[in-house]
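Board work, copied verbatim: Large ribosomal subunit protein bL32
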Amino acid sequence: MAVPKRKHSNSRSGKRRSHDRVKKRQIGYCPQCSNAVPTHTICPKCGYYQGRTVTPQADE
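↓ predict structure ↓
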């Protein structure tokens, strides 16, 4: 098995890990009820997704 001859510097390790961070979720707005919703998800308030009501919500 291959073994590294030298230790990677902290700078080099940091450069490699710079893309490992957790990114923020993109927020869009529901076109029907204007509620803030993460993109590509069903609106939890009205059940709307991609031009139609996917899950009917109970009236409260």
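Residues 31 and 48 are 8 Å apart (CA to CA).
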